[in-house]
Model the fold of this input.
Amino acid sequence: MCIRDSGGTLRKPWINKEKKAVVISFFATWCAPCKKEIPYLMQLKDEFAGQPVEFLLIDVGEEKEKVEPYIQQENINLTVLYDQYQVVSKKYGATSLPRLVVISKEGMVKKYQKGFEDPDIFMKDMEDLIGELVVK
Done:
């Protein structure tokens, strides 16, 4: 079954109807605080494996050919999206990096943070927030 408009097919219905929380980090390969944050995001991904939460890295302003070797070299196991022309990062106000955005399963922004400083506070806050978001 497809959704139709004026007789034309618009899209197929969602196959997987499970809603997920989303953790997005805008980053760049040259960003030192980003390099510190990414391992903690990977740790959170492992910790919440099997839960309804997705982790995304969005590279800001760099060409894919520059980013891919960095991803491989650093063994980054997060989904990486490319925003070479900074369209998405501008919509999210990611004018400085890293910029972290956590979105609930209902599509509400629950955390909007710039920079990365204390890893212990970051992990505690993120574990608490994600834990709350995945049980709802």
Notes: The helical segments are 32-47, 64-73, 87-91, 119-135. Residues 119-135 form the longest helix (17 residues). Residues 1-10 have pLDDT under 50 and may be disordered. The two ends are 30 Å apart (CA to CA).
